[in-house]
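Project channel, design review

CF: Before we commit to the Chitinophaga arvensicola constructs, I'd like one complete example in the thread so the newer folks can see what an input/output pair looks like. Taking UDP-glucose 4-epimerase.
RD: sounds good, go ahead.
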Amino acid sequence: MIAIKRLDATEEALAVIDMISKEHGDLMFYQAGGCCEGTQPQCFEKGGFFPRTNDACIGTINGFEFWVDRDLFEYWKYAHFTLDVLDGFGPGGFSLETPYGKTFKVHYRLFTEEELQHLEPVRRND
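CF: and here is what came back for UDP-glucose 4-epimerase:
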């Protein structure tokens, strides 16, 4: 059986990612567990943010890593993430889509019992 992905993106999000990567090069995503940036996914130039010890890389979008805060991942490890983008400004404004009047958002759904048995492994930051 094929491993079940933990992460996907909408066509709209992929179009914004393509636009940003043409300007900034390689990217990375990080979804924190709160504080000033909330739980909204942030997009940075690759290396522009350093995941903490034991944060989880749940997959890639167009080859760009998507990291999740270690505590947030423990809460959402049974859920599939779909990255989307909306018009507007999210909290914080540190993310690279902000100057375009866009903000990334994640839609969640719980994995089925069968999917849980075949999930792609996560990679932890050592």
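RD: helpful, thanks. The CA atoms of residues 43 and 96 lie 5 Å apart.
CF: The domain at 7-124 is CATH 2.60.300 (Hypothetical Protein Aq_1857; Chain: A;).
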